[in-house]
Every structure is written in structure tokens, then in C-alpha cells.
Amino acid sequence: MNLFELINNFWRVDEQLNFTGNETRLYFFLLHVANRSRWPEWIEYADKRLAANANISLQVLKSARDRLKEAGLLDYVRGGGFRIKTKYQILTPRSALRSDLRLTPYNINTKDKNINTKTYGKGKGFVHTGSDFD
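Predicted structure:
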């Protein structure tokens, strides 16, 4: 998985779930930290420092990371107390999407296959003989 695919996956999920600006900012800041750290499996970052660097409050940080976790974009393990940092993991998109994210306006088949679409102008009063000059 590369950075470009993670970004495209985020925007695809965002079209369906409509993330807030704070959730978007948090995700891209964590992508930045992961990229800067050469993509470790887990990133350790203190909550207060992350909130300050992402320019959001602690409460907004907690709700944003919960929403990103529910969307399947990241996983985290909360820090247990003083000097124990929260661990974040950027998740790669699964091959099979969640069932509630599977149907988008782009892949819903709305065409009725029982309707004859090749009328050759019959509805407009033309007589079709099969000639090139009709």
C-alpha cells in the first residue's frame, strides 16, 4: 500500500461518510507522521501533542479518531496514563468493503435489461427498413 492509494481510499470513504474537517485533518496528520517515520506498523504519539499539532481540542481528537476507527481507516490503542502514548495504526483498505459502504451511486445498476433499447426511431415515427439511408 502506498501513500497515493491511502489518500484515494480516504476520499472514497469520505464521499460516503462525510468526514468533518477535524477528522480529515487528523487522518492526514497521522499519514504525515507515518510517512516521516518511514511507515512503521504502529505510530506512538501523545494525545496532547497530537491535538496541538493538528490544532484541535482533546475532546475533538477523541471523537475524530473514534469515527476514523469506525470507518476502518485507522486503529489505535489508548495510552494508559502518564508518559504512555497512544499508538496509532494506519489501516489499508480491505478488498471487500463493509456492507454499508458497498453500494454507491457509481455502482448501482439501474438499467432494466428487459426493456428493448434498440427501437431504431420507431417511437419517433420513422420506418426502419435496415437501409443506410433511413
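Summary: Residues 95-100 have pLDDT under 50 and may be disordered.
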